[in-house]
Amino acid sequence: WSAVDGVGDESPFIGAIRSHLRGTVPRLRDLLSDRRKYFAHLCLKLATQLAHKFVGALFRCKPISTHGAEQLLLDTHSLKSFLLQMPSLDSAIAAKPPTAYVNGVSAAMNKAEMILKVVMSNVETPEDFVEHYSTLLPESNTSELQKVLDMRGVKKVEQTAILQAYRLKFGAAADATPAVPVGMGNSLSATQALNAVVSMAADGLAETTSMKRLEKLVKRNF
């Protein structure tokens, strides 16, 4: 990604993800047509886990040029848009996904967008960079900050000054593990959204003794 010198259409890997999910999700929806709560929970878990894996993959892309970050930001937007409409893929009924699903997926993908915006930023002094970073990623820590600096290709000696400025600004909290997943932001509504869908799925679980029947059904059809 350091060699990218321009921004074009979405990257091929986004099309591959879309193709795979488009061939799988509708089949799962049909299998769970009488267990819609299971399907809602499955979609949220799948989308948020994919978002977190995507962020992990971004951290391994280092260094990234400004154009590379812009391309990945375009890819992130494409993936986010697709995940938001994933529950109704190829459905004959055009229905909006639950608000809880939209909030949960948006919060999870927000992390990738903010990380890439930091990588793209043009901030010179350590203090200004820390201020900009903490505005975009308020629930971060020094461990993640160092990963972002590696993505930017910042030299180790320069990283030291930025990390010191970050610790000076946040004190002991700079090295602490965030109370909520990094990138989920400080939005209580996002956490409530996740809990709402989990609770919805739990209600469905109460209708049967266990998930074994569901697991057997999926295994039998795949």
From TrEMBL:
Domain of life assignment: Eukaryota
Q: Which organism is it from?
A: Ancylostoma duodenale
Q: Name one Pfam family in it.
A: VPS53_C
Q: Name one GO biological process term.
A: retrograde transport, endosome to Golgi
Where does the record place the Vps53 C-terminal domain? Answer: 70-154
What GO terms fall under cellular component here? cytosol; GARP complex
- PANTHER family on file: VACUOLAR PROTEIN SORTING-ASSOCIATED PROTEIN 53 HOMOLOG, VACUOLAR SORTING PROTEIN 53
What's the name of the protein? Vps53 C-terminal domain-containing protein
